[in-house]
## 1
Amino acid sequence: MENDQRSRWARFRKSRIVKGIVAVILIWWLATVISEMQPHHEASYRAFCINNLAFIQDAKQKWALETKPPTNATPTWNDLKPYLGSGTNVVTMPTCPGGGVYTIGNLQTAPTCAVKDHVLE
Ligand SMILES: [Zn+2]
């Protein structure tokens, strides 16, 4: 009787049901880990992007100081190029790590990113 129960338990442990349950637990655990990592990523993307927007805004102001355009002028990437470099001639255009597209905007408005929440404060 006892022996019979034990062997049934052994068979149960080897069954596909147990493997299925283990797989479900593993998938659930993985999903939890990934979902916990996600907002973290988004937050660092956002911080990086806002830093870029501040950099673009700074370049716009330098451009305005130097070229004295009308106060509502809208600089192009080409206009900003000389002010986006870091001392050398190597110019790396700032890009959003979240894949957003930047709009420079005119001198009255802050540059914006197409990604929601990537807003210069
Ligand atoms: Zn962005």
## 2
Amino acid sequence: MRKVRGIVFVMMDLLAVGLAAAHNINPLQNKYGQDSGMPLGRVAEPVHEEITQLARACMQAHPGPVHTPLICADDTERSIEPRGNKYDSLVRGVWWNDDPNQLLFALRQGRFLSWMHDARLIATTGRNWQGKPAAIGSDYYLTYRSHYGDLQFLHAMASGDGEPAATTRHRALLWAEFAYLVATGRLDPETKMDRISPVELRDYFEEQSGWTINFLFAYHYQLKGDAHKRMMAAGSLLHMVQDSYSAAHAQRFFEPTAECPNGGIVQFHSYTCQDPSAHKREDLRSAWLQRGFTPTQDPVNVSATLLGYIRQDADWNIVRDYLEGTVFCLAEDARNASPGDYAMAAESVRLPAKCKH
Ligand SMILES: [Zn+2]
């Protein structure tokens, strides 16, 4: 019994570290009902889930077309699937960016943790868990690539220090367009990944060229119906946008400027040389609630606005202008990616050579 409990505690600890590259999610909490107790229920706070449920309630409270970004007056009303998040396609889509191989969804948490451990070793030391030279390329599992490889734009982060902000934003917008086209039914979920739009995004899925969009979002599991597939994509778009409001992912400014009248982004961060615990603190619920957002730059309002655009099937150009001009508006003096204020300490014995300056 003690051994089992010990394993559980080690897993809890690892899970907390493993989920550090994002606003926290917790697929175990409220999985089979709201406010249900689960053994690992407090490992990670379900921040993405809460933001998403608040946003959906806000969107539903504004039934008309979206002419200007939605401002959500009620920050307590949540739109919740009473059977539990497992049956909530939008929330499942929100989980996907953190867990594209759906390991946290079932009893594969151990594999998730070992992959995350291996991915961090490779990203920081250039060697894998076996001590062999390795680099996370496009042939690695999506879970590796999403957290430590070339798909970090799924979390509104740069794939490495020094990446120009315009590059990170461009990649985020590629994903946003793809997810939006799927969410609005313009892209059939049976489309293969080598036929998707935008064309440039195909480069990231050459190893998955024979996969359908549906398989990409449902590696192991899915719910029935076309609406589920569309909402998975919508959730993935929300995840990326919500992450961009975590200070460990992007440094924002909120004062109006000539190029960004609603504020915007000064710098995207890269996770590789960040201290995971420092990063994690910014992804907590308390950090989300303490950040001084403005009404137009608030992850709940932005998520609600995007859900409103999806509901009304707005033209992608309108959504792109909103993302470029508000959500991901780049400061004129935007800086190349760095760990920001979350860098591993220079004196840390675990500081990877590539992170020394
Ligand atoms: Zn994330």
